[in-house]
Amino acid sequence: MGLFDRIRRVVSSNLNDMVSKAEDPEKMLEQAILEMQEDLVQLRQGVAQAIAAQKRTEKQYNDAQNEINKWQRNAQLALQKGDENLARQALERKKSFTDSGSALKESLDQQTTQVETLKRSLIQLESKISEAKTKKEMLKARITAAKAQEQLQGMVRGMNTSSAMSAFERMEEKVLMQEARAQSAGELAGADLETQFAKLEAGSDVDDELAALKAQMTLGPAQAPNQPQLPGQTTAQPQSSTSTPKSEEVVDAELESLRKQLDNM
């Protein structure tokens, strides 16, 4: 590959890249429709010209047919009058118009075919333009949506989401710590209340015992109820008159039980 070919290829690729970047889809669609409408105008003008030429040729053909019919009548009239030479001249004029009419008929047929073709092309072009306009609106809507999405993605990329989420996590951790401190404070407050009530219960027992001691000291040793005995101190128990009989009954019952056991052996 020669140097100039490489340079040409590089220049062409750079130009194509620049053109591709410079192409705005929305503007290109507008330009394409404008060009199609210009073609439509030219085609309409061509169709109009073709129809006008067809009409003119058709008129000429009809005039030629009229001339043919006229000279045919003239030739017949000349023969009726016995003027064969005049009849011959009339037939020669008729032949001239007949040849002209044949040429006009061929041209008219070609023009008719051309006009029909142009009309079909015009209808197709109008349909294509209408379809292109519909597609243009759809593509414009898609382009607008794509641009909006691209801007949204750019905004999302520009957001510092990680730092924001980190801030939320830090705040959540602080809230959890604050809740934990509040729960701990509540538990400590409950423990303090329980301790205070325990102290009140212990103090009540001591107060009761102190009141009992005061009552004993006030009543004296003889009247103190349930007074504990000191070591070596004996308390005189009054003898009951029924204690001896009860003991004898117990002994007799045990003897009776032993006798029964001996009898059963």
TrEMBL record:
Coiled coil (UniProt feature): 47-81, 108-149
Low complexity biased stretches: 231-245
Region (Disordered): 214-265
Ranges of compositional bias, category Basic and acidic residues: 256-265
Keywords: Coiled coil
Keyword Protease part of the UniProt annotation: no
Parts of the chain that traverse the membrane: none
Pfam families: PspA_IM30
Family: Belongs to the PspA/Vipp/IM30 family.
PANTHER family: MEMBRANE-ASSOCIATED PROTEIN VIPP1, CHLOROPLASTIC (PTHR31088), PHAGE SHOCK PROTEIN A (PTHR31088:SF6)
Protein's UniProt name: Membrane protein
Species annotation: Dulcicalothrix desertica PCC 7102
